[in-house]
Amino acid sequence: MTISSRTLTAADGTLNVHTGVTGRASKMGHRLTIAFRDWSVTVDESEGAPTAVSVRVRVDSMEVVSGEGGVTPMFGPEKMLARSNALGTLDASDHPEIRYDATTVESTKDGYRLDGTLTIHGVTREHTVDLAVSTSDGTTHVAFDAVVRQTDFGVKPYSQLLGSMKVVDDVDVSFSASIS
């Protein structure tokens, strides 16, 4: 039995969070795309198949890439303010890392189902991820889209105007990477 390990980083792909806005004044808010610039995925393999997956994300590596909607376009200063608000919401100084550890990896028709634990804001919960895998021209592409409910991890979604505008509790997480 051959056991090996492979590590992917932000140089190999993207890890993004997409937020929504709700409330009476939601038209004023931006729907954000936030990219994490410092992350790693370590995959343990046996006989060419994954057996465990470990993900580490540095929270303060987030960058607000874009903000759709809102009353005005989102430029540099507004992006920096949104980043600051997100770091505060996540208590990044106290909880600098997001972790996912999958100890059960099952083959599926389109890739793999990962069962493990997700830790955000110091709270750990069971979480399942369906990873799509495809190959073209000798390159393997892996991707997933998942929904994470902030309040499940003790995170109070950002709000302003006395709650008339707030970030939706469910955020969409997307990941994609290519392996040569």
TrEMBL record:
Q: Which top-rank group of organisms is this from?
A: Bacteria
Listed Pfam families: YceI
- All copies of domain Lipid/polyisoprenoid-binding YceI-like, residue ranges: 7-180
Identify its protein family.
Belongs to the UPF0312 family.
Q: What is this protein called?
A: Polyisoprenoid-binding protein YceI
Q: Please report the organism this UniProt entry assigns to the protein.
A: Rhodococcoides corynebacterioides
